[in-house]
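Changelog-linked ticket: pyridoxal-5'-phosphate example.
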Amino acid sequence: MKDNTKLVATGRPHNRPAHPVNMPVERASTILFPTYDDYLEGAKNITYGRLGVSTHRALEAAVTALEGGFETRLAPSGLQACTAAILAFVSAGDHILMTDSAYDPTRKFCDRFLERFGVETTFYDPLAKKSEIAALMRPATKVIFAESPGSLTFEVQDIPALAEAAHDGGAKLIVDNTWSGGYFCKPIALGADVSIQSATKYLIGHADCLLGTITSSDEQTASKIFYSLLQIGSNVSADDAFLALRGMRTLSTRLDRHQRNALDLAKWLGKRNEVDAVIHPALKSCPGHANWKRDFTGSSGLFSVVLKPVPLPALKTFFNAFKLFGIGFSWGGYESLAVHVHPEKDRSATRWTKEGSVVRFHAGLEDIDDLKIDLERAFNAMATALK
Ligand SMILES: Cc1ncc(COP(=O)(O)O)c(C=O)c1O
């Protein structure tokens, strides 16, 4: 099946004799077994609410099909998908290689939280070659953590090279695949052991709940992930799993529009006098663009621009003039967003040297002409403030 068909056909209640179109929400803590033998049998799959019931299994099946993996497990947030996946493979004395462009809370989990338990993290340049990664590997390196494209600055990483470096050194490669929605990039086919998404973004797609997915490439990796989530007491509500599965039905349609709007806006912004640089993986100017061209089939709605330097009061006027772009964290919902971000604060292996403010845009599903009018309004307000 092609992805568009998988998104419609998987995770549906087909095995019931007469059934609704969608897998119902099953809310449960206790699961009741009619007989002792059923209890033993059930223990292999659905046993207790915390481990998920049929609603969760349906979402997991759909994500596994989309990502092309062996098995998917759910976490209550994208961040916990990242942290539980890392925890599955490290112990005291181990070492992690993490991209310098990682989502900041994932980064802090390693160099602030895991550090207390004797796990060391080295950050690497997201554009590092395989030989440079290999040189950073230690006997104790158990995980390479990649996020591609990187948060805020969108460097596209060489996933096959990272996978080789990880496997040569006996480590696992975990990839945060949120930007592609699991639709435009398949890290497992490129060699990753684990592909993670913050389902909060494109899978859910409506900015109304949080959830994470962890897809493993093989049975042994999947088992480690399962016990990591089990042992930290992770739980996902069936209502949230239902919303994610419902979101997935329209994922490709939404992503097509996010893609078109973002590319159109990125090109339009690139021609503006106020803009110093546009960072969009599908544009040649993006660091790692060749990797995007080789490994991705499209681009989603999130990108950044670097403005020419302006004083903060003028920048505030820019943001305050928006009527459509919301000022807010997260992304992947149907609505457009703009936030002032600070890559210079979250880097240690590389340096962010651009002087102007970085604005990260999420292109939503609105009409492109209205989005441009909104941006024009913001630039005009900034120009007035600069007079
Ligand atoms: C790339 C990336 N990974 C992980 C996360 C964390 O996801 P959540 O907000 O669902 O915890 C985010 C959130 O913004 C993100 O942008």
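Closing comment: Example verified and attached. The chain is about 35% helix and 15% strand. The mean pLDDT is 97.
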